[in-house]
Amino acid sequence: MDTKLIIGSAADVDSECLVVVAVDHGEKQKNDAKLTNRDTALERAATELLSSGEVTSKPFEAVLVHHPQGLKAKKLLVINGGKAKNFGPTEVRKAAGTALRFLKPKMIKSCAFVPSEISTGFEDAVRCIVEGAYVADFDPDTYRSERKDLRMQEISLVIPANADKTAAQRILEQARIIGESQNFTRELVNEPGNRMTPTVLGNRAKEMCEKVGLKCEVMGPDRIKELKMGAFWSVAQGSDEEPRLIVVRYEPAGAPEKPVIGLVGKGITFDTGGISIKPADGMEKMKYDMAGGAAMLGAMRAFALLKPKVKVIAIVCATENMPSGHAQKPGDIQIAMSGKSIEVINTDAEGRLVLADGLHYARTLGCTHLIDAATLTGACVIALGMVNAGVFANNEDFYQRFCKALQRSGEKFWRLPLDQEYFEQIRSSIADMMNTGGRYGGAINAAMFLKEFVEDTPWLHLDIAGVAWMEENKSWIAKGPSGIAVRSLVEFVGSFSS
Ligand code: BES
Ligand code: MN
Ligand code: ZN
Q1: Which of 281, 289, 345, 368 could be 271's S-S partner, Cβ–Cβ 3.0 to 4.6 Å?
Q2: Which tens digits make up the pLDDT trace of 358-367?
Q3: Strands 369-374 and 459-463: what pairing?
Q4: Which ligand is nearest to the CA of 272?
Q5: Is the beta carbon of 436 within 6 A of some atom in ligand 1?
Q6: 170-179 as b/e: b if 16+ CB within 10 A
Q7: Residue 457: partners with Cβ closer than 8 Å, 6 or more residues away
Q8: pLDDT tens digit string along 355-401?
Q9: How far apart, in Å, are the Cα atoms of 135 and each of 77, 364, 475?
Q10: Which residues, including other chains, have CB under 8 Å from residue 494's CB and lie 6 or more apart?
């Protein structure tokens, strides 16, 4: 999809379809729909439609007007952006996404957005339209034989002659990179286990790194054993597919020595549970157990293109979790790379095992700050449902900075605690810790386990189990892989750019 600016007034834009957003200023049931862009020609063209109440009946629905009066464009698409008082950046994203997903099946291949006027400003409106449009352009039906190529070819943004063109162009470029990187992650997550083995993930990482100019090292079983990654290896040993330790470096010229941000991703390309095998019902979903790792790769792609001045190293621990004659068993003791001993109670708590070594390895590579992302626990899904992801932090400043990044990314995370008392849950009588801690506070138990391997390094743990895969189609995004965390990581790391 191409993205460009059109400078001038909406009425003169010769497009297949102009897109505008209307919001409801009315109280209770009374309809008072107004456009979010007070362009007189547009308002005139939409008057009748707006007063009919048709647009504002349901949020994030669209109405298409053919041959709009007084406009050069062939069609006018009016999106319902919901209540006026709630209308902000998130709604701009959703509205832009709704437009794309409405137009794509109608074989309309280009459209022109007239940006909404929002309180956070013009630049935010441009950024959110482009991000929202790219997210909506993705469809997960990769392997359908009758798949139609429904992608949009081009979107334009109509900006007034007095707007800052250079700034708008820069923001548009940045938003495109972020949207495309999120979709890169979604493509990886969408692949099934037989087509996204650890080897394939390593190759895809290498391929991407070559394209955008990143250093990438992909290591196999010998190196993993040589590094004494006993926790990572304990999961990998049960599978006939070789594991991969993927290390991607972004070290731009001119970046200060510190910080070095370490992004550690869970890359379980399929999680059967191992010997503690999962029930058959829903097990097919466990192909998305590498979504944390894929998010880190997507974020790295974005850094290579956006070029923030800060060092970042991504580490993805990729393996299957399989039952077999050489799989680890409940009760086995493993020695992690850090030297700590782990009593494996449940082989299905494998994510924390691979991350334990990934986090420790990141520290040995010189990372001063750590973030991990993982589809780590079903308990996090029970706690927060499929709306918020979980975030854990051992450092207040680091967490506050993350919250600022969330305001820009529009992604939802909710903080959960890490009090030392919780460690009692995973205390072992034979080793330094157990890999599970019973039914209560399961997401926290997993986080407490990881905490043992980051020690004093400022660290954020993102448990994305509930939000990495969307169960339902939304009018602004297809069901399937969400690409969660990519945008937040990009905004967060960018905030360190000197
Ligand atoms: N990959 C799963 C967690 C998960 C669950 C991801 C649902 C996405 C959706 C993880 O490896 C796992 O199996 N966790 C166990 C831990 C338990 C054995 C302590 C769980 O949550 O049931
Ligand atoms: Mn598991
Ligand atoms: Zn898992």
Answers
A1: 289
A2: 999 999 999 9
A3: parallel
A4: 2
A5: yes
A6: ebbebbbbbb
A7: 363, 367, 368, 369, 370
A8: 999 999 999 999 999 999 999 999 999 999 999 999 999 999 999 99
A9: 19, 36, 12
A10: 306, 308, 310, 405
